[in-house]
């Protein structure tokens, strides 16, 4: 396991190295470029994250054997820039009492969110579909401060559509 972690750390460093960008600065009288100094710098975190996300999507399953020599042989078959893993990630879609996860059925989601955003029904509901219901929600409104030391509010009702995963 430790060997896999070292490998993935190296793959992460290589990902940062691959996304380095060249920056230059000119030196000279009144902006003339008599001498130019260039260096490589890390790009923005979003670009590095996108690169690592694509690597994550293509990560390779690493077979672990009883003998230490066998597992290192398996690790030698992947490129140093590849990410590796030893077991499948559990599904967050269905309840799993061993992991104490409740799944996404009945969970509130947002049908209007863009697909890649958090809380989006398409991502959250795992293809099971969405139930949409009309709901009346009571809330405090038109609050007024009454001298001394009291706030009095009316009870108001708003109507909204609530979407939940089936």
Characterize the overall form.
flat
Helix content: 25-40%
Give average pLDDT, whole number.
86
Taken in chain order, the helices and strands follow as HEEHEHEEHEE
How many helices? 4
Q: State the low-pLDDT regions, or none.
A: none
% residues in beta strands: 25-35%
Structural class by helix and strand composition? alpha+beta
Largest sheet: 3 strands, antiparallel
Distance between the termini: 38 Å
Whole-angstrom Rg: 27 Å
Number of strands: 7
Strands side by side in the biggest sheet: 5-7-6
Detailed description of the structure:
The protein has four helices and seven strands; from the N terminus they run H-E-E-H-E-H-E-E-H-E-E. 25% of the residues lie in helices and 32% in strands. The longest helix is centred in the first third of the chain and has 17 residues, at 2-18. Strands 5-7-6 form a three-stranded antiparallel sheet. Strands 1-2 form a two-stranded antiparallel ribbon. It has a two-stranded parallel ribbon with strand order 3-4. Strand 6 (130-146) and strand 7 (150-165) form a beta hairpin. The protein has a domain at 1-86. The mean pLDDT is 86. With 166 residues, it is an alpha+beta fold. It starts with a helix and ends with a strand. Its main location: secreted. GO terms for molecular function: cytokine activity; frizzled binding. One of its GO terms (cellular component) is extracellular space. It is found in: Secreted, Extracellular space, Extracellular matrix. Keywords: Developmental protein, Disulfide bond, Extracellular matrix, Glycoprotein, Lipoprotein, Secreted, Signal, Wnt signaling pathway.
């Amino acid at each position: 396991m430790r060997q896999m972690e070292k490998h993935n750390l190296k793959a992460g460093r290589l990902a940062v190295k691959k996304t380095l960008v060249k920056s230059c600065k000119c030196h000279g009288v009144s902006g003339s470029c008599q001498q130019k100094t260039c260096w490589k710098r890390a790009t923005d975190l979003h670009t590095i994250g996108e690169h690592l996300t694509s690597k994550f999507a293509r990560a390779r399953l690493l077979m672990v054997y009883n003998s230490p020599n066998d597992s290192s042989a398996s690790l030698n078959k992947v490129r140093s820039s590849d990410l590796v893993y030893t077991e499948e990630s559990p599904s967050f879609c269905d309840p799993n009492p061993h992991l104490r996860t409740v799944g996404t059925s009945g969970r509130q989601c947002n049908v209007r969110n863009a697909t890649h955003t958090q809380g989006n029904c398409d991502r959250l509901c795992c293809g099971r579909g969405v139930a949409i219901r009309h709901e009346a929600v009571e809330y405090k409104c038109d609050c007024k401060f009454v001298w001394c030391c009291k706030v009095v509010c009316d009870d108001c009702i708003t109507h909204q559509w609530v979407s939940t995963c089936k």
